[in-house]
Amino acid sequence: MATPALSLSHRHVSAFAADVPDSLTKSGQRELPSKYLYHELGSALFETICVLPEYGLTRADSRLLEKYAGEIVGRLPSPIQVAELGSGSGKKTRWILEALSRRQKTYYYPIEISPSALAALAKELGQIDLVSIVGYERPYLEGLRAVAEGRGEQDNLLVLFLGSTIGNFDRDKGDAFLQEMRAILQPGDALLLGTDLEKSLELQLLAPEDPAGVKAAFNMNLLARINRELGADFDLSCFRHQARWNRVERRIEMHLRSLQRQTVHVPAASLRLMLNEDETIWTESSHKYQAEEIAGMAARTGFRCEGQWIDNEWPFAQNLLIAG
Ligand code: AVJ
Prior knowledge:
The chain is of the alpha/beta class. About 35% of the residues lie in helices and about 25% in strands. The site of N,N,N-trimethyl-histidine has 12 residues, from α9 and β11.
């Protein structure tokens, strides 16, 4: 069996070792939880996806924040502290923190399971005057609970959930997640939610298919990670990356398609897996939204939508939700 990377806590390794066989042996469609795509190498590959010419999502997200951070911050109560779920490199966050730091001293709590992303973040955002960074290497809601418990009595919270990460959740799971988040917050706290919007089929399908294959590498790396950390023997040349538009669910799905009938072993999970030719492992969903449906999502989950800003190059929305 391969030795797990030293930077991983035992807890992470055992959660991974438990989740992998459960989802790979699901009846019907085999799966792998998408959160395991984002770790060390995976997060670096995703950062590369974000600069692909075909992938407009991250640039739209950034453009909106650059243009409207002042306006967004102007609608927030004061004083306010900032928590961010899955902050990645933090480049987009800078606009919000700079706008806030013009009016108050700000604590910024990035919540992120990737230690390398947290370290990069401290570097990227460590120099802003009047901003102090305290990172939490925890799952999203666990981290948010810790931040909320530690806040001062006067402090409101702004939660940043950018980049349409919400799109990784099935719609009902997304609602449940927002409800759980709401339960941790106080009335008047804010959530800035980034959502990728439905767009022409051409744009939608162009985005998943970059000619250099960065997305394919990002997807295939999950199998390589299982080989590295759980001692599995996935032969990557026997799989192919596939992106599909699911028009009923309004989402892009990423799959790994088995090119032949094959058997795979995952020793750390005592698992022997038989895959048929053309059978797929579903690794990620990326749900798309209509601008008008966000108010409904907010209402169902204990928020109200107080503002929405839409990019005019790539359909993407920043939504300011206030806890009711
Ligand atoms: C991280 C969910 C925002 O939906 O575009 C992109 C994921 N995966 N290319 C997205 C993703 C491969 C991404 N999100």
